[in-house]
């Protein structure tokens, strides 16, 4: 075991050294926010630093990433504002010069005339005019006219609404805020169209693809994409060989004729956990309803089957709540599982455990309801910008809730770590065969508590590259990293208690799995940051290590087979059939959703063209629900199975499992993936802004594909209904037990 622990420690330490090093580069080489933006010919001040920073806060307050996207991060209905700004600005400037020089529009010019004017445009927008001495940016008078034209357009969009962007009327009424928002949008487009000092690519590594200004994929992105694919194939081969050579060498266990857990005694604290499952069921149902409303906005921009819903619940709110509730209920399920298993781990009921469980339950309700109300108030502009930051809408996908609610949740996680951790420590002190399994479990529990606080590092006026860096520490590392390790160890612990595998084998396998997951997962965080104003090191390391993230997922096919074989060992294991089926579903979607669809958008050469398109939604749905959602459901079922003393009628769970998985497949195959492929083709051939344009998104073909999603959504919703119905009925039964 010593070698296994050395490998684990080395991977974690070296990976964080690399991740933190890139972080220091992000701080030092991020696009500068100028003190002033001035017109070169006249010296007129167009924007100030305060305008840009306040404009970012205004953008956050209206929903931020839930209203279109910036640098490819955000929602899909409205445009990517930075890409859209660049394209509109370029078209204006080209037409201005064409009219001035030839009295024609740009498209009417011959090839030579177009080439001459395009070269003038590229020199104008790509030349870096940031002055390090006075911290100012100089722009040409023509570009200033283009900025004025764009500002007028976006002020109209956000004040009068735009149905095809699902933006209702009156999102912003204050003319000062509208002007500040435009200054922020300009800055994001400037960083994406202006070359870094002494480089031939922009601050966003030439993202977005915009042929008018020769924003094309960089050599670095192409080279590191190829290298990542080579590494992927190499390490899949190595790991598969290792797996096939060693996976049968675990310590043998005695074949059990009876369920080893049949005489398991239950504690007051475990019964106290049951109410979490009721709330989780309600949150799941609400999340699905909000998902249906959110997706309907993509076909009927302001309404829900004719009803003007956007006046009360605009798209930015329904999408915020839909994604946030997913995180809430999945995290709540996993945390409740930890609390439920804690007495099983230690073999005793710790003091004040019931009080702590009840306190966390109340805190969870307050955080969920309070953050949702705050987000609604923030988006409707009832809060000033600073109050919005703390109590309203932070504007960043998956961590939209205000800073106060984040801190409150962080305090709750510390309490959870203490409550679960003390049971694990007590069990470790027994120094038996389960020691190594429990140590890695304790590490994952502590990491879940610690890494949530990475989302608190940035401040109200931090720059976008810095915020994105720490945001992905939370979204990727916290969820995909250490929650993944926690889930792996919990399943290993459960199977060891069922005596399906030995505790020694479970411990060694868990540490090895954690090492493999984190070897790619920690530095792989950077694959979210290729084009976010970050230096080229993010592309090099992100591409390399995000490819390694996929490697362990290729073995999920073997895991599906082994879980299936578990059901054949003894008749009593049939009692746990549906928890095992849900774990099998997790393995399948880990391979397909996180693996195949994840790698679809991992290499820089792919993400350059398809970031923020429906291809991202394919990965998000199949990985977030297919992996983490099904896993959370499996945890609920197995906890109820431990607690319940009656035979189950499996019809509800059978229907739930198959409806959920078939619905998810239909959702992807009939709608999300075809739309994503059409958008990707458009992005490659015409430019990124066209792939996000309303003209394409509301074309007859895409409208049909959007409506086709209703097939998968209905099937999926039936699965949710049966799961929630079963969970509520069985939980209420367990409540009645003494």
From TrEMBL:
Pfam families the UniProt entry points to: COX1 (PF00115), NorB_cytochrome_c-like (PF22085)
Molecular-function GO terms, alphabetical: cytochrome-c oxidase activity; heme binding
GO aspect biological process, one term: aerobic respiration
Cellular component GO terms, alphabetical: membrane
Membrane-spanning segments: 223-244, 276-299, 319-342, 354-373, 404-425, 437-458, 470-495, 507-530, 536-558, 578-601, 621-644, 656-681, 707-728
Coiled-coil intervals: none
UniProt KW keywords: Membrane, Transmembrane, Transmembrane helix
Gene3D superfamilies assigned to the protein according to its UniProt record, in alphabetical order: Cytochrome c oxidase-like, subunit I domain
Occurrences of domain Nitric oxide reductase subunit B cytochrome c-like (ranges): 37-209
Signal sequence region: none
Protein name from the UniProt record: Nitric oxide reductase large subunit
């Amino acid at each position: 075991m010593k070698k296994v622990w050395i490998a684990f420690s080395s991977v974690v330490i070296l990976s964080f050294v690399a991740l933190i090093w890139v972080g220091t580069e992000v701080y030092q080489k991020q696009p500068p926010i100028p003190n002033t933006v001035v017109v070169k010919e006249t010296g007129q001040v167009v924007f100030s630093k305060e305008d840009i920073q306040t404009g970012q806060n205004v953008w956050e307050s209206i929903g931020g990433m839930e209203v279109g996207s910036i640098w490819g991060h955000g929602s899909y209905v409205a445009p990517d504002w930075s890409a859209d700004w660049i394209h509109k600005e370029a078209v204006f400037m080209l037409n201005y010069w064409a009219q001035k020089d030839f009295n024609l529009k740009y498209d009417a010019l011959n090839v030579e005339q177009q080439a001459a004017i395009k070269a003038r445009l590229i020199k104008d927008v790509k030349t870096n005019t940031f002055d390090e001495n006075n911290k100012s940016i100089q722009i040409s008078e023509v570009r200033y006219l283009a900025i004025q034209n764009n500002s007028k357009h976006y002020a109209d969009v956000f004040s009068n609404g735009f149905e095809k962007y699902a933006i209702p009327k009156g999102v912003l009424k204050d003319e000062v805020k509208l002007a500040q928002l435009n200054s922020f949008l300009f800055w994001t487009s400037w960083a994406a169209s202006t070359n870094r000092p002494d480089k031939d690519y922009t601050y966003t590594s030439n993202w977005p693809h915009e042929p008018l200004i020769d924003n094309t994929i960089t050599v670095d992105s192409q080279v590191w994409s190829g290298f990542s694919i080579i590494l992927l194939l190499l390490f899949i081969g190595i790991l598969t060989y290792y797996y096939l050579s060693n996976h049968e060498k675990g310590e043998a266990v005695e074949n059990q004729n009876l369920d080893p857990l049949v005489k398991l005694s239950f504690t007051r604290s475990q019964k106290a956990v049951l109410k979490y499952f009721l709330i989780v069921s309600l949150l799941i149902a609400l999340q699905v309803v909000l998902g249906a409303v959110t997706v309907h906005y993509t076909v009927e921009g302001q309404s829900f089957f004719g009803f003007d819903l956007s006046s009360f619940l605009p798209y930015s709110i329904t999408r915020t709540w839909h994604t946030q509730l997913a995180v809430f209920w999945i995290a709540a399920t996993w945390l409740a599982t930890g609390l439920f298993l804690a007495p099983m781990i230690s073999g005793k009921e710790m003091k004040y455990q019931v009080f702590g469980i009840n306190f966390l339950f109340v805190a969870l309700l307050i955080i969920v309801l309070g953050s949702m109300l705050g987000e609604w108030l923030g988006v409707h502009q009832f809060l000033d910008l600073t109050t919005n930051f703390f109590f309203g809408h932070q504007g960043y996908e998956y961590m939209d809730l205000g800073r106060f609610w984040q801190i409150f949740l962080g305090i709750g996680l510390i309490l959870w770590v203490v409550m679960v951790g003390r049971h694990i420590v007590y069990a470790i002190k027994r120094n038996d065969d389960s020691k190594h399994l429990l140590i890695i479990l304790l590490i994952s529990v502590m990491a879940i508590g610690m890494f949530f606080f990475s989302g608190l590092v940035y401040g109200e006026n931090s720059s976008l590259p810095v915020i994105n860096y720490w945001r992905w520490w939370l979204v990727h590392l916290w969820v995909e990293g250490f929650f993944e390790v926690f889930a792996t160890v919990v399943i290993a612990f459960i199977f060891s208690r069922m005596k399906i595998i030995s505790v020694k084998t479970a411990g060694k396998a868990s540490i090895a799995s954690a090492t493999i997951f984190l070897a790619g997962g920690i530095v792989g965080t950077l694959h979210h940051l290729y084009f976010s104003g970050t230096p080229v090191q993010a592309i090099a390391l992100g591409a390399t290590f995000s490819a390694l993230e996929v490697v362990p997922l290729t073995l999920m096919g073997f895991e599906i087979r082994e879980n299936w074989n578990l059901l054949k060992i003894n008749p009593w294991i049939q009692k746990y059939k549906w928890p095992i089926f849900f774990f099998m579903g997790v393995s399948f979607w880990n391979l397909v959703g996180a693996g195949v669809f994840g790698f679809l958008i991992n290499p820089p050469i792919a993400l350059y063209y398809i970031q923020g398109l429906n291809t991202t939604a394919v990965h998000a749905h199949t990985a977030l629900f297919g992996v983490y959602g099904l896993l959370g459901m499996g945890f609920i079922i197995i906890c109820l199975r431990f607690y319940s003393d009656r035979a189950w009628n499996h019809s509800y769970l059978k229907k739930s499992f198959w409806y959920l998985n078939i619905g998810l497949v239909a959702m992807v195959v009939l709608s999300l993936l075809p739309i994503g492929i059409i958008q990707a083709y458009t992005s490659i051939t015409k430019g990124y802004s066209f792939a996000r344009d309303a003209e394409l998104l509301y074309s007859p073909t895409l409208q049909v594909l959007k409506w086709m999603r209703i097939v998968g959504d209905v099937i999926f919703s039936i699965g949710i209904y049966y799961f929630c119905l079963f969970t509520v009925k069985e939980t209420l039964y367990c409540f009645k037990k003494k």
